[in-house]
Amino acid sequence: MDGILNALVLLSNFVIVPAMAYGSQLALGALAVTLIYAILRFSDFAQGDTMAFGAMATILFTWVLQYWDVSISPLPTALLALPFGVLCTVALCLLIDRWVYRFYRRVKAKPEVLMIVSVGVMFVYNSVVRFIIGPGDRWFVDGQRFIITAPAFKRLSGLDEGVAFKTTQGLTILTAVIVVAALFWFLNRTRTGKSMRAYSDNEDLALLSGIDPERVVRTTWIIAAALATIAGVLYGLDKSFKPFTYFNLLLPIFASAIVGGLGNPLGAIAGGFTIAFSEIALTYAYRKFLAYLTPGEWAPQGLVQLLSTDYKFAVSFVILVLVLLLRPTGIFGRRSP
Amino acid sequence: MNPAAHRRENMRTICMFAAMFAALALVGVIQSLPLALTILNLCLISAIMSLGVNIQWGYAGLVNFGVLGFAALGGVTAVLVSVAPVPAAWGAGGAGVIVALAISLATILAAVFVARRAPAGVPRKLLLAFIIIGGYFLARAFFFPAVEAIEAVDPTKAGFLGGLGLPILLSWVAGGLFAAAVAWAIGKIALGLRADYLAIATLGISEIIIAVLKNEDWLARGVKNVSGLPRPVPYEVDLQQAPWFRDWAALLGVSPVEFSSIFVKLCYAGLFAIVLLVVLWFSGRALHSPWGRMMRAIRDNELAASAMGKDVTGRHLQVFILGSAVVGVAGAMLTTLDGQFTPASYQPLRFTFIIWVMVIVGGSGNNRGAVLGGFVIWFFWVEAEPIGLWVMELLTSGFAQDSPLRRHLMESAAHMRHMVMGVILLMVLRFSPRGLIPER
Predict the structure, then answer these.
(1) What are the backbone dihedrals phi and psi of residue A294, each rounded to the nearest 5 degrees, phi first?
(2) Which of A258, A325, A328 has the CB atom closest to B200's CB atom?
């Protein structure tokens, strides 16, 4: 019996808890991508660098707060700086929309052109981030590191294995739940949210019924920028902040959004967790886990790892390919391609 | 178009290329001649990559954000074709790797066969899952011991299977074919769906190609790199020894050492220029043939073209493969020029998105435009750093030498080139979407 419990605890520590946190981060990023796709009808390749910008702005405010000795210990100071970071990113996205994207909406440019425009925006964000904070690694987490440490868990439960639950992981999951709940309340219950959904479903009909498209677009950018910043900060708190890693998040985020059907918010969340769990479960070495479940002499010799961690991007890609082959509109998508 | 306008446009093109070469000559005079030739060589390679993307985007409106991956495939082909084989490694694990690859291929073929032929339903799904999972584990069983054995063979110098030991020029063709094969697979999956899917799928495959090339040491030593690839042109040292070469150098009044480096670079430039002209000629012919007109018809109105009975997805697949093959050729050329393959240096901003800036700035849909874009943008990409440093120097001249702000600004000058590229791309898309040399 202890063997099974130990195995489960081991799995929680190395697969379930990290995947929940990573899945929440991906889900928030994928929500931003999917909202932009639903309203503005293009895939925003600047998304990764928007997240990096939001995280950078938050880090700068965190440093200011730390300098002033403002702290909300045991929680990280970055949480206090987050609203300021969100404000900066929202301002940036609205400015870029006004200066760049609005023109293409007016001329009704093809989505392909908008994708290429977003690459130009990506270049700009990328250089701004590197110019201000540099390309190196930054840690900005402070406060209490663990909600529960592995030794403490072992003491409490009397098992051989422990679950370490980092504050940043708990915070990530909690924040994601709150943000997603707020977003769905907004989309389903408020007038602006409903007009956004109407605009996404049928642009012409929405215009006929007097919905102001520019207002819908502005709201979308505000929400997307907030989501991107929160996702970027949570990811940075959990791992560390390095501008290039945010570009690498583009693939898992797009894969998450497509798995659930581009433009479908619920699908983006399901997609985020699907990708995160597959990625971590497939790259985890199961030797110790199996050793607990099998009698001594059957314990496996190798690592029992399905895929080397170097290929974690391949997981997103394979899932993406499977979805494109089997159900191009996503698991929750409507039937039309 | 009337002949006068045609002539005017030709004059414009000629003037712009003349200005470009004048700028290169200026670098040769102000900085140094070898540097100007280095820039020229990379301009030529960039122009070919840009032609490849132009075939996809300009002719057909396909968005390929995986240029990096196709270039890297070409690059690794240069290694696999030219390096001498490592017999000890082949003996240790060659058979195992081949068996594993054969099993993988058989698994894919069997899965495709079952997916196509078996009646739909739960049994088919189970069978498919069984084939794929079984094939994966069977291939692994042969693969990992073989890889371990190969990487144990003289790890500091070899540790990989080596190549075929053939002339490196062959890899320029092979690299194109290799890239074409991968493009076929990706195109089969992602074409015919939303335009966004191809962009995302190509971005994904390029990241995976780079991950494979970085981590699979048995193939091309991964991040340990294979350096000292055989060259298609003479070596400087040999030239410096040759009496005829010394005579030439004396005749021109330069030292043999300096002249040899210039001579080698000129040889490369000649080879690259030939490839560029060949690709340019073929793609020009294709663009002005009935096939090219059909491609543009599909690009401008897919619905109308398919109503006329054109196979839109099939033509897209064709053009996607052709464009990727051209990028693969350019990738093999780049590795040949560098003399080594370094997977870690393949960065998406440097290889994928910069090529897009070239195509858009040059003029999408126009081959001469794509070539000009390749030249201009590569020139600015390289020269942005000295120019940026100079501007920063000027801006911060009022500051104290060791002021932290000045130091930060000087260090960050390198990142300004991304800003410059982004702003150029956005400005051209907004104010002159047809580029420097517009499509006819």
Answers:
(1) -110, 155
(2) A258
